[in-house]
Amino acid sequence: MKKETAKNDTSLIKTTAVWVCGAIVLFAAVIAVLVLKKGTVKTALEPLTKYTVTQEQDENTSEDETVNKYVVFTDENGESYTLFGEDYMANLSEDRFIVINNGKLSFFAEGEEKELARNVISCSISNDGSLVAFVIPNSDEKQYIGTLYTYNTVTGGWEEVCSDIFVSTTSTIQISPSGDTVAYVRNYDEDALTYDCCYYSKGEETTIGQNIDVWAISDDAEYIYYAKENTEDYSSVFCVYTEKNGEVVLDEEAYNNFYLNLDYSECVYSLAREEEPLYISRKGSEGEVYLETAEDFDTTSLVDHVNKVISADSFK
User: Fold this and answer.
1) How far apart are CA 290 and CA 250, in angstroms?
2) What is the pLDDT of residue 126?
3) Engineered SS bond to 171: which of 71, 167, 185, 254, CB 3.0-4.6 Å?
């Protein structure tokens, strides 16, 4: 059995920003569709049907035709559901997904697609699949400035988080594992080239600092991993922040490959532009050599399109 949506043109920058070409749907129309319910109480997640995912596209397409792309979800019984989509993100259990197609964002679970929004320029899903966050541009003129919304996939509740979000290939949305904390950047100054990094948790916004790009944030913002920019030469360093240790620089260059444990209390990473050795930071500590050979690190439990999370409580 196949379930298909209407065909659209395709365009996507993977896992970061989807830059929309053409007119933006009126913001008022979006609000009319999104019934916002602030302060939605989160309930426990129940396991849903697990899917394997493949991506396909039309093979017999002429040069002047748009190539239609598809995301195919197949359950353990071999039943498949096909959605038009350029890309997708999965939660760690691979039973809840978001799909993006020409700026249209949908949530997929239990064989059903629910359209969430159109003209989306950035989106993400929490590791447990309970929360989806996305940004819609505020105008045609500055499509990189928009409003951040969240959607609770358990309760169906919506919330408008911030109306002044800056989206770029580096400043993107980050969600904590259980969805209780969302990090983003706002207050972009085009002349000074500065912006503020913030996170939202339990109805309150906290500013982390200026010109910081969060790479991962734990529940309650207990552990924050980020690239911190030097505004003089625009170089960046890779850091971790905890309340106990403050800011700890893990590498003097922020071009790192890194992996997280389930609660983000530990981070295994390589130094900038190098594959090995691998270093580890535990609970916001300074990095120390973990493995001399990167091949010895087990990454078999990684799931595509989420932060690089290893299914482990702690790295041995």
Assistant:
1) 13
2) 98
3) 185
Confidence of residue 36 (pLDDT cuts 50, 70, 90): very low
Contact status, residue 108 vs residue 83, Cβ threshold 8 Å? yes
Closest CA to 88 of 101, 102, 74: 101
17 versus 228: the higher-pLDDT residue is: 228
**Percentage of the chain surpassing pLDDT 90?**
76
Sequence-ordered list of residues with C-beta below 8 angstroms from that of 141, at least 6 positions apart, any chain: none
The helix (H) or strand (E) run that includes residue 157 is: none
The shares of helix, strand and coil residues in the chain, as percent rounded to the nearest 5, are 5, 45, 55
Residue 163's nearest CA partner among 131, 215, 200, 129 is 200
Residue 17 is predicted with a pLDDT of 37
**CB distance 239 to 256 below 8 Å:** no
What are the φ and ψ backbone dihedral angles of 22, each rounded to 5 degrees?
A: 110, -170
Number of H helices, E strands in the chain: 1, 23
Query: How far apart (Å, rounded) are the C-alpha atoms in residues 236 and 263?
Result: 25
Distance CA 202, CA 17 (A): 26
The pLDDT assigned to 154 comes to 96
